[in-house]
Amino acid sequence: MVVFLSLSIFFTLSTESRAQFLEVFAVVQQMNGDKTTASEMTLDVDDSIVGGIGAGFNIGRVNLNMDLLFGAADITSVNSKLDAKLFCFDANLDYNILKSSITPLLTAGIGSISFSDSNIMVEEFTETDFSYNFGAGLRWTIKKHYLIKGIYRATWTKIKDTDDSIMFDGISIFLGYIL
Predict the structure, then answer these.
(1) How far apart are CA 38 and CA 125, in angstroms?
(2) Residue 83 falls inside a structural domain
(3) pLDDT digits (tens, 9 = 90+) for 79-132
(4) Model confidence over 54-81: pLDDT tens digits?
(5) Which of 22, 36, 57, 126 could cross-link 179 (Cys pair, CB 3.0–4.6 Å)?
């Protein structure tokens, strides 16, 4: 009985106690690559892992947050291979479905992905493209001050002069502190 009560207290947190709190977090995201075409040439964007930081603000069951992610991905075509550095910015809206400390969540956001490579013989490749994302996952608030989120997220962007958008999808892990 004591164990049950202790676990109940540990895992229970209402949305009211989460309301209007600022949170900061570190994030790691695995991103599966994709292919697109440009001028009858196929561009293959490799898988990558990005990491970064973010912050959010809770308003009831809604969390408005943004994250900044850094990483790299190879972009290959028939004639060349770029070692592109990635910089991703996302502004997201998460909706926590339940009022408990462990809750499924839905997320959507907009942002940008910057690609940069200075190893090209002729000229430097740098561009920033609009992106949008959707996802679902699980949030766990631990003892009112710590949080863990695991989210499957798909992000779409369109590289300049390509025919189709590319999709980066994968798992994001967030470890945070609630102020």
Answers:
(1) 15
(2) yes
(3) 777 788 899 999 999 999 998 999 999 999 999 999 888 665 545 678 889 999
(4) 999 999 899 999 999 999 888 887 777 7
(5) 22
> Is 135 inside any structural domain?
yes
Q: pTM for the complete prediction?
A: 0.82
**Number of domains comprising the chain:** 1
- Is 4 inside any structural domain? no
In-domain check, residue 70 = yes
Amino acid in position 83: D
Domain range enclosing 74: 16-100+129-178
